[in-house]
């Protein structure tokens, strides 16, 4: 069948426009069908997954997340991990949560393994909540790639917190603490300082606040570009010797502060404690 002469494009550019419009119409129809079937990138689904492990005999806990913020708290009788968020329907299988236990060691991993897609509206996001029984542990380790970390009320002989790109914030921790991030602020709230504490960031501020001020403390504060402030009334600073805990704070660009819980924050303080 031949189209009427008036409906035919009169030039090559006219044919190009006609073909382009036809392709757009086909694409729109395809997206409409995908949307109706729930497979469109505009369709989102909730991520809600939970796993647990028995806490009996567990002495070490390791938590890892690549792009989702992590919050670790105490409570309950078991070790529980919950991943929540949203993702495109076509990306729902890219999110993973695993909890494994072996020889007194529990490993929790949450991640999004992003795959290349022709069309992406929202790649998705998630948060990880970990709840552990309130008791002392030998070692608790938390690591992220591009996410913030929040830890509250955890007690361990060794606490290690690492974030390549993200803030670290803690409250009422107890034990020997190591906290490191490349770009991000570190705000360490601890019950007391009876063990060594080390915190390091390349670009960010570091603030250490003990609920109870120690009788004596060995301080090592180093920043290439930033201010240093120490407000610990009644604490003998610079003390050395057996039984004296050491606090080492290091930043290339950032302010460093060690403050008693009832001391006013520095006037130029920034980061997790806010301006």
Description:
By secondary structure, the chain is mainly beta. It has a domain at 167-275. Helices cover 9% and strands 52% of the residues. It has one helix spanning 12-37; strands at 44-54, 60-65, 69-74, 78-88, 95-102, 105-112, 125-132, 137-144, 149-152, 155-165, 168-183, 186-190, 197-203, 206-210, 216-225, 228-231, 236-237, 246-253, 256-259. A hairpin with a 2-residue loop joins strand 5 and strand 6.
Which bin fits the share of residues in helices?
under 10%
Tally of helical runs: 1
For the report, how would you describe the main beta sheet? 19 strands, mixed
Order of helices and strands: HEEEEEEEEEEEEEEEEEEE
| Total count of strands | 19
Strand proportion: over 45%
Give the structure's gist in a few sentences.
The protein has a domain of 109 residues. It is 9% helix and 52% strand.
Topology of helices and strands:
Blueprint: H1 12-37, E1 44-54, E2 60-65, E3 69-74, E4 78-88, E5 95-102, E6 105-112, E7 125-132, E8 137-144, E9 149-152, E10 155-165, E11 168-183, E12 186-190, E13 197-203, E14 206-210, E15 216-225, E16 228-231, E17 236-237, E18 246-253, E19 256-259
Parallel strand pairs: 2-6, 2-8, 3-7, 3-9, 8-10, 9-11, 10-11, 11-12, 11-13, 12-14, 13-18, 14-19, 15-17, 15-18, 16-19
Antiparallel strand pairs: 1-4, 4-7, 5-6
Keywords for this entry:
275 residues; mainly beta; 19-stranded mixed beta sheet; single chain; disordered C terminus; globular
